[in-house]
TrEMBL record:
Keywords: Signal. It comes from Polarella glacialis. It comes from the Eukaryota. This is YHYH domain-containing protein. Residues 100-203 form the YHYH domain. The keyword Signal applies.
C-alpha cells in the first residue's frame, strides 16, 4: 500500500581528498611562530609567520585557523624604508593613496601572529564605505576574546585586546606598535600622542596636519620624531578591553565613531626593487612620492622589552584555553543579524602536554587534490515532504549502496592564492515515477546554496527531499520527477577568506518530464529563470518548513541557466542508462 510504483534511490559517495599536511593551530596558542628580519639588498623587512596566535583562541564561526602553508601567506616582505604617496594636508582618501576598501586579503601582519585586515567584509557585502558596511559592524559578533576572528586565518579588524595588554598598553600613553602594514609603515593600537583615542579628523572636526586625528585611511602624518622615526603610521582605532577577559565575543567592539578601525587605504607605495603585496602599488616615478622616514635605523623592533626578531612569548595574560566561554554581550553595536555561531567548539589540549590538532573532516591542500571514491551505505528512516503541489514522497527504511559513483573534486584558483575545494560528501536522491513511463525530456541545471554547515544540512533527514520539493514547487512539476544531488564544498578564495562564514552546497537537479505531460521543458526552464535565486530560496524554505526543518537557513547564491535535454525516447534504454548511472534500484 505504500506509495505505489514509486521508488527512491539514494546514493551516498564519500570523497576523500588526498591532503598535504593541513592542521589547525593549537587552540592554546602553542603553535605560534613569528620571526622578523631586515635586509639591505634590497631594502626589505621580512616577517615569517605561520598564522597561529600566541594566545588561546576561541571559535565563533565554523572555521578554525590553519597552521598554514598557503602560498603567499607565510613570508611577508615589505619596504624597509617606506615611501609616502598620501597627502600631508588633505585627510581625504581621494588624495593619492592606495585603496583597500575592497581588499579581502591581509594588509598587514601583527606581532601576535594575527593578520591585519581592512574593514572590508568581503564580496558578499561589497565595498566598505562606512561603519555600517564594515566588518566590525557586519561580523563583529564573531570577534573573539582577543578582538580577532578565527577563520582559515587568525585575523583582526579591531584593536587586539590581548596583544595590546601584552605589549603594555596603558590609558595615558601612546599605544605600543603592534605590527606592520604591508606598505612598510608601523601599525599602532588605538591611542595616539598623550593617550588620545585616535579618530578621523572628519569625526573629531580637527584640522588634518595640525590636530591629533587621522586621515580617512586611518593613518596619521607627523614627522617630528616624537612618535617614531617614521613620517606616517596607522592606528587600529576603537575601544578595547583589558585583554584578559574570557568572554566571547569580545564585547567592546567599536562603534561608528571609530570607523575605519583598520586602514581602508594606504599612504605608502612600493619602492622599486622591493617585493610587495600586489595591491601595494609601485611608487610613481618622477618624485610624486616622498620619503616616509627620518633618522631611521631599521631593525626588528623591541616593544615593552620584548624583541620581535624571534616573535613574542606566549601571552600569559590572555584567558587560558580552558577558561574561554561563550557569553552574551550586554551592549554592542554590531549588526544583530550577525549573531554568534551556536556550534561553538572548544578543543583545548590537555594542560600539561603539547599536542597537535589535525584536520578532521575538511582539508585544504596547496596542490591539486587526488580523489578516492569509496562506497558507503546510507539509510533513511521515514522522511516525508509535503510540497505545494501536495505530492508526498515517503522513504521508509531504505538502504542503498553505490558500487561506483563519480564524484568530481573541482578546484578553483584566485589570482593570489591557490584554492582547493574539498568535497566532503555527495548525496543523491531520486524520487521518480513508475518505470514504464516514457522519458521524453529533461531539464538539468545547478544551484549554489549557502548554509551554515553543509554536512549538517545534507545529513538532515528530509533536507534533500525539501530541495527537490522546492524546485518542484517553483516549476509546477511533480516532486517525484526531480532528481537532486547535493555536494558539499569549501570554496576558498583569498578575497573571501576573512569573511566566508557559510558553506557552499552545490545542487545538481534533473527534472524528468514524462511524455504527455501538460508541463513542457521550456516552461520548467522559464519557471526556474523567472523564480530566480530569491524565488527558489522561498520555495525551498517553505518545503523545509513543511518537512519540519526550521533551524536551517538556506540561501540561494546563484542559479545556472537550465539546459533542456531530449534523450532517446525509449523507456527501456532510459531505464538501463539510469541503472548504470545510479547502480541500484529500490522498489517498494
Ligand atoms: C553606508 O554606505 C552605504 C553604501 O554606500 C549606504 O547605503 C548607507 O546609507 C551608508 N550609511 C551611512 C550611515 O552613511
Ligand atoms: C545568553 O542569555 C540567554 C538569556 O538570558 C541565556 O539563555 C543564554 O544561556 C546566554 N548564553 C550564554 C552563552 O551565556
Ligand atoms: C557540522 O555538522 C556536523 C554534523 O552534524 C558536525 O559533526 C560538525 O561538527 C558540524 N561542524 C561545525 C563546524 O559545526
Amino acid at each position: 500500500m505504500a506509495s505505489m510504483g514509486k521508488f527512491v534511490v539514494i546514493s551516498v559517495a564519500c570523497l576523500v581528498a588526498h591532503e598535504a599536511s593541513a592542521a589547525f593551530c593549537a587552540q592554546d596558542g602553542s603553535d605560534y611562530s613569528y620571526t622578523e628580519s631586515v635586509s639591505s639588498s634590497p631594502d626589505t623587512r621580512t616577517v615569517v609567520a605561520n598564522g597561529c596566535p600566541n594566545h588561546p583562541w576561541y571559535q565563533l564561526n565554523d572555521r578554525k585557523p590553519y597552521l598554514n602553508t598557503w602560498e603567499g601567506h607565510v613570508t611577508y616582505t615589505m619596504p624597509l624604508y617606506p615611501q609616502f604617496v598620501g597627502s600631508t594636508t588633505s585627510p581625504s582618501s581621494g588624495s593619492p593613496a592606495i585603496d583597500l576598501s575592497q581588499t579581502g586579503s591581509p594588509i598587514g601582519i601583527l606581532f601576535n601572529g594575527g593578520k591585519l585586515f581592512s574593514p572590508y567584509a568581503g564580496s558578499e557585502t561589497g565595498q566598505v564605505k562606512n561603519y555600517s558596511t564594515s566588518a566590525t559592524y557586519l561580523i563583529g559578533s564573531t570577534f573573539d576574546q582577543c578582538g580577532c576572528f578565527t577563520t582559515l586565518h587568525f585575523g583582526c579588524h579591531v584593536p587586539p585586546h590581548c596583544l595590546l595588554n601584552q605589549l603594555g598598553q596603558t590609558s595615558g600613553s601612546h599605544s605600543p606598535q603592534i605590527g606592520w602594514a604591508f606598505d612598510g609603515f608601523p601599525v599602532y593600537g588605538p591611542r595616539g600622542p598623550g593617550g588620545v583615542m585616535m579618530q578621523t579628523c572628519s569625526i573629531t572636526g580637527g584640522t588634518y596636519g595640525a590636530a591629533v586625528c587621522t586621515d580617512d585611511c586611518g593613518g596619521y602624518y607627523q614627522n617630528d620624531g616624537t612618535i617614531d622615526e617614521y613620517y606616517y603610521r596607522y592606528y587600529i582605532q576603537g575601544t578595547y578591553d583589558d585583554g584578559d577577559s574570557c568572554s566571547n565575543p569580545g564585547c567592546t567592539s567599536p562603534g561608528a565613531d571609530y570607523y575605519p578601525n583598520t586602514p581602508v587605504c594606504f599612504g605608502g607605495c612600493c619602492p622599486s626593487g622591493v617585493t610587495c603585496k600586489s595591491f601595494v602599488k609601485a611608487c610613481p616615478t618622477g618624485g610624486t612620492s616622498s620619503k616616509g622616514y627620518g633618522a631611521l635605523t631599521p631593525t626588528a623592533p623591541t616593544i615593552n622589552g620584548l624583541t620581535l626578531s624571534s616573535g613574542l612569548p606566549a601571552n600569559s595574560g590572555a584567558c587560558s584555553c580552558h577558561g574561554l566561554s561563550a557569553d552574551n554581550c550586554t551592549s554592542s553595536s554590531w549588526a544583530t543579524s550577525a549573531s554568534p555561531w551556536t556550534t561553538q567548539e572548544k578543543s583545548c589540549p590537555p594542560t600539561t602536554t603539547s599536542s597537535t590538532v589535525t584536520a578532521t573532516s575538511s582539508t585544504v591542500t596547496t596542490t591539486s587534490s587526488t580523489a578516492t571514491t569509496t562506497s558507503s551505505t546510507a539509510t533513511t528512516t521515514s522522511s516525508t515532504v509535503t510540497t505545494a503541489t501536495s505530492s508526498t514522497v515517503t522513504a521508509t527504511s531504505s538502504t542503498a549502496t553505490t558500487t561506483s559513483s563519480t564524484v568530481t573534486a573541482t578546484s578553483s584558483t584566485s589570482t593570489r592564492t591557490t584554492t582547493t575545494t574539498t568535497t566532503t560528501a555527495t548525496t543523491t536522491l531520486r524520487s521518480t515515477t513508475a518505470p514504464g513511463s516514457v522519458t521524453v525530456t529533461k531539464v538539468k541545471g545547478t544551484l549554489d546554496l549557502d548554509v551554515l554547515n553543509c554536512t549538517m544540512f545534507t545529513e538532515r533527514e528530509g533536507a534533500i527531499l525539501a530541495v527537490a520539493a522546492g524546485i518542484a514547487s517553483a516549476t509546477g512539476v511533480d516532486a517525484k520527477s526531480v532528481l537532486v544531488t547535493l555536494t558539499c564544498s569549501r570554496r576558498l578564495s583569498s578575497d573571501d577568506l576573512s569573511v566566508r562564514r557559510l558553506e557552499a552546497v552545490n545542487v545538481a537537479y534533473e527534472i524528468t518530464i514524462p511524455a504527455g505531460s501538460t508541463i513542457t521543458a521550456e516552461s520548467v526552464k522559464n519557471a526556474i529563470v523567472t523564480s530566480g535565486s530569491a524565488g527558489l530560496a522561498t520555495k525551498i524554505a517553505a518545503a523545509m518548513t513543511a518537512a519540519g526543518i526550521t533551524d536551517i537557513v538556506v540561501k540561494v547564491n546563484s542559479i545556472s541557466m537550465p539546459a533542456v535535454e531530449i534523450p532517446v525516447s525509449d523507456a527501456v534504454a532510459s531505464r538501463v542508462a539510469l541503472v548504470a548511472m545510479l547502480g541500484l534500484w529500490m522498489w517498494w
